[in-house]
Structures are given as structure tokens and as C-alpha cells.
Amino acid sequence: MPERRWLELPDAKYVAAYPKDPRQDLGIDLMLRMGRRRIECIRAMISDMHYDAPEPYMYVDGKGHKRHNMPLAEGTDKKLFRYLDWRHKALMEVLNDHAKKVEAIDNLFIWTHGNKWGSYDPNKGTAWDKWITTPTSVQTGIYFTNHDLRRTFGRELYFTSKVDIAIIQSYYNHESMDMTMWYIGADQKRMSDAIRKLPF
């Protein structure tokens, strides 16, 4: 099994609250406060975001293209609206004010450079790292990867907020509870807690 890393709670709070550009802010939020994979963020479409529902949620196109819905974290809708405003302005500049073209582009996350735009490559993800994860890590002075943020989400739900492991498993869309427990380090914690209960 590969090494697992998480952010400590003070670092996670700092990264979440650190002032970021709208694209970074939403991208980091989806990974850290909603436990999304980088690929799920890259695949996300505007039509997947149901922020006007009574309980706002997003459709997630997960590993193996398993689709499920995920409630939006509190405040994610505000980050989404801020990002969509930035995205609209950036695309209007690139597409020379052709509003119909702008509205037809469903990819949630886009990049613009000069007079070009594009969606992030789901096979590489290097542009996502270049524009979202790496700059935020450098700006905050806290080293982390995309998956560190995702694991931190579940770990804090379990250890700090005491959320049931079965619910965290459903957030991650993991096939087994054992995988979720390993993922967030609950397996080791449970073993350590259990061994302390020895009567001799």
C-alpha cells in the first residue's frame, strides 16, 4: 500500500481560509471540503452543479465513471458563483464577446491563456496541478498533493466531527469500508485503541 498523508487540522483550516483566486478557491474547496478526486473536478460540468436544489448537490463522475451525487459543503455555492463569474469573463475575452459560445461550454473548470481556452486533460492533470494545487501549496507554505486534501476531508469527518464511517465511505464512493478506513487512517487508530484495552 502507498504511504498516506493528511493535513493537520490547523493546516487544513489555513489552506481552506487562505485568499485564493476563484479557480483555486473552488478547486481546493472541492478536494478539501468535499473529498473530490482531481479527476472528478476535471470532469465536472456546470450542468452537474445543482446549487438551486433544496439541498444543493453536484453529480460526480467518479473512478470507473461511476456517477453519484454529493451534497455541496456549506459555502461551496458562494465559491462556485464567484468562480463562474470569473470563468464567464475569461471566456468572453477569449471568444470575443460571443455570449452564446460562452454559455454552450459546459466544462466547469477551464483555463485561458492569451486568446486560447481549454478544459483540463483528464489523462494528465498536470495543468490542474500547475494552476490550482501547486500555487496554493506554495502560497500557503504548506506542502500537499491533491490526494492529501481528499484524505484530509474524510479523516477530519471521522476523527474530529465523529461522522459514521459508512457515511464517509458513501462520500468517497468506495466499494468497501476497509478501503475507507485505510484511506483515512482509521484502521491504525482502531487497532491502537483496541490493543490499549488489553486487561494485562
Q: In sequence order, what are the helices and strands, one letter per element?
A: HHHEEEHHEEHHHHH
Mean pLDDT: 89
CATH topology of one domain: hpI Integrase, Chain A
How far apart lie the N and C ends? 32 Å
Looking at the overall shape, the CATH architecture of one domain is Orthogonal Bundle
Biggest sheet descriptor: 3 strands, antiparallel
β-strand number: 5
- How large is the share of residues in beta strands? 5-15%
Low-confidence stretches: none
CATH superfamily of one domain: Intergrase catalytic core
Shape assignment: elongated
User: Helical content, roughly?
Assistant: 40-55%
Number of helices: 10
Strand order of the largest sheet: 1-2-3
Descriptive overview:
The mean pLDDT is 89. The chain has a three-stranded antiparallel β-sheet with strand order 1-2-3. It has a two-stranded antiparallel ribbon with strand order 4-5. The radius of gyration is 18 Å and the shape is elongated. Helix 2 (22-32) runs antiparallel to helix 4 (76-94). The chain has 200 residues and is mostly helical. Strand 1 and strand 2 (57-61) form a beta hairpin. The protein has helices at residues 9-17, 22-32, 38-43, 76-94, 99-104, 126-140, 146-159, 165-172, 177-184, 186-195, and strands at 49-50, 57-61, 67-71, 110-113, 116-119. The protein has a domain at 11-145: Intergrase catalytic core (hpI Integrase, Chain A).
